[in-house]
């Protein structure tokens, strides 16, 4: 009987904790006579937070598996400079052919995007280089050096564009299906090379193409006003050909067409990221910072040994944890990074393999939270499973834990009519999150019961 009463009280206390953000004093309940009593109590634990550079945790940089690379350079008044470019191979469908009697007219590479950060009117110079050495296979990281794979003295082409595409006629930009883009004219000889390969190589496919055309490096040479998130990268080979069936003479019908090659998940695409984070890494008693892509994380120390008497000798039923972000108080700034929509809470020791092995938060050693844009909080819920897990691994005694908060992007699918996370990626789009470090904002609320 007394166990049922205990669980009822525990539920009530848990509900009170979840409905109140104030610091809680230790409380107790006596629900049986003195000799037969179960106590329920609460406590709080302050979490220590500091800003750390991603490179200090991951010497090779952040795992850069992405379908949407970022491109450009952006200077944020708070979060410093982010610069990015990328290398990419192109997928060639096996056996794809040009029509007979083809003549190459022109070749272009294009990046398409509809999201960006920064000044959309600032001019940007986009330059393309041909890759002259096979790109490395395996895992790829943001400290990748593309200059080892290209001849920087021999650009294939360049173009100046604005993120808002003000150089494109207004009536075209107002079309409902308009996609922002930047084109670079490339040498016609590149298209002729690919055309000749399709004629001479049996069943030309992606692997065979790489022997003769290894891909492109796209970078920006000037312009530090904006950075774009690229949705598609396409190589256009425009041609004309004689259509012998177009007339009785078989000589006077000329048609045009295009072969389009894409960067796809089947080929290699590597995003290189450079950051200047000096201001964020300065000593700061008020705030900790998180910046994507590959900028800074917030490292957390859970000093569980400070509560060792309770954690080792009582049952931990609830350990509620959430962090609070700084709202955008500088709304008068026209350009400023927004907070990450999702954060991952992950053990520092597990950080590298989590993304490389494509793991998902398990709510035991890793957790995720979505930004509540009303309260500006990330609520990770109940971390008692985490604390109890490491306690069990440490012979029943708690030890201090070091975790990091990482900006992430997630894929959510509906399975059995329920939304579920099916993939987690490092956040590649630019974001900037400022977290409060005060005891009132950076703490765990704990609920105990007798063993």
Description:
The protein has about 450 residues and is mainly β. Helix content is about 15%, strand content about 40%. Strands 1, 2, 14, 15, 16, 17, 18, 19, 20 and 22 form a ten-stranded antiparallel beta sheet that branches. Mean pLDDT is about 90; it is low at about 15-35.
The quaternary organization reads as single chain
> What percent strand?
35-45%
Give the helix level as a range of percent: 10-25%
Describe the global form: elongated
The secondary-structure class comes to mainly beta
Which stretches are poorly predicted, pLDDT < 50 over at least 5 residues? Answer: 17-37
Q: What is the distance, rounded to the nearest whole angstrom, between the alpha carbons of the first and last residues?
A: 17 Å
The main pleated sheet reads as: 10 strands, antiparallel
> What are the secondary-structure elements, in order, as H or E?
HEEHEEEEEHEHHEEEEEEHEEHEEHEEEE
The chain-level mean pLDDT equals: 89
Total DSSP helices: 8
Tell how many strands the DSSP assignment holds: 22
Supply Rg. Answer: 28 Å
What is the element layout, followed by pairings?
Layout: H1 2-18, E1 40-46, E2 48-53, H2 54-57, E3 70-76, E4 80-88, E5 102-118, E6 123-130, E7 157-162, H3 170-173, E8 180-186, H4 188-200, H5 206-210, E9 216-222, E10 225-242, E11 254-262, E12 269-276, E13 287-292, E14 296-302, H6 308-313, E15 314-324, E16 342-347, H7 351-356, E17 366-372, E18 377-382, H8 384-393, E19 401-415, E20 418-426, E21 431-436, E22 443-450
